[in-house]
């Protein structure tokens, strides 16, 4: 392997879509990558300092993060990475997959009052609800498909909202649903898990996604005219929904000491997720996981500690821990 390729394989920041040199923004491709990498590294060091009770270092790092533009500049760099000229945004893959897996057009429901009302329709597929966690652009591909209930069924959140249609909210503090009407058919976690600075926090984020996914077979599936759920559409939906769309920089699974795709699949299985779709591009890895709702508590279940499974000097340290 040429030296330049080896160098590229090491860096998780290279997991962003390619950045071109010519854009209307003032951030070059290199500057954008450096900014993203530095932000992630500072966040990780900050989390480590907090974990070890080193509040003075944590404060210094926090100040440095702010001095360097903080989340605002990081989001700007990520938005540049989403532009069509730089590889496009990952929601395109989510929409492609759902349209392929659930081919019949759902009834358009722009003025539908609530997911519950949609569920009462028979013989037509209700539009899907979506929780888009870590949303930078409310006009991404999800906004342009009839798959989703654009009335009240699409909720977008981010740690820092860059748009009135995005709620400013930490997913880890989002109040738990009080009932199924507050759960979703689809949860998108695109390039968010790798933002979490520590392995335990990543495991907790994955576990938490289950709280926000609709319980399978709760009536959100389409029923056949016999009322027994026997239609082809109902079966197709049951094979896919509810689901989690997960996107990571490719090196998180292709070049990590601690995580491979196989190990991720084992972990997800442990949480009740089965792989439906997967795509590896030069920069990113995309997964669609169906949640079976079977595993809401993990007491006495298998734990996944930090364990080196693929040693090597050129590997990265991306890791997810399930406790
Ligand atoms: C790299 S951007 C990804 C944006 C978009 N989803 C994409 O695929 O390009 C990561 C975003 O996730 C957000 N984020 C990270 N942790 C989050 C959390 N716990 N709750 C909500 N948003 C979060 C960050 O604020 C940031 O805007």
Automatic annotation (TrEMBL):
<keyword id="KW-0489">Methyltransferase</keyword>
<dbReference type="Pfam" id="PF11968">
    <property type="entry name" value="Bmt2"/>
</dbReference>
<comment type="function">
    <text>S-adenosyl-L-methionine-dependent methyltransferase that specifically methylates the N(1) position of an adenine present in helix 65 in 25S rRNA.</text>
</comment>
<feature type="compositionally biased region" description="Basic residues">
    <location>
        <begin position="1"/>
        <end position="10"/>
    </location>
</feature>
<dbReference type="GO" id="GO:0016433">
    <property type="term" value="F:rRNA (adenine) methyltransferase activity"/>
</dbReference>
<feature type="region of interest" description="Disordered">
    <location>
        <begin position="1"/>
        <end position="31"/>
    </location>
</feature>
<dbReference type="GO" id="GO:0005730">
    <property type="term" value="C:nucleolus"/>
</dbReference>
<feature type="binding site">
    <location>
        <position position="134"/>
    </location>
    <ligand>
        <name>S-adenosyl-L-methionine</name>
    </ligand>
</feature>
<keyword id="KW-0808">Transferase</keyword>
<keyword id="KW-0949">S-adenosyl-L-methionine</keyword>
<dbReference type="InterPro" id="IPR021867">
    <property type="entry name" value="Bmt2/SAMTOR"/>
</dbReference>
<dbReference type="InterPro" id="IPR029063">
    <property type="entry name" value="SAM-dependent_MTases_sf"/>
</dbReference>
<feature type="binding site">
    <location>
        <position position="158"/>
    </location>
    <ligand>
        <name>S-adenosyl-L-methionine</name>
    </ligand>
</feature>
<keyword id="KW-0539">Nucleus</keyword>
<protein>
    <recommendedName>
        <fullName>25S rRNA adenine-N(1) methyltransferase</fullName>
        <ecNumber>2.1.1.-</ecNumber>
    </recommendedName>
</protein>
<feature type="compositionally biased region" description="Low complexity">
    <location>
        <begin position="17"/>
        <end position="30"/>
    </location>
</feature>
<comment type="similarity">
    <text>Belongs to the BMT2 family.</text>
</comment>
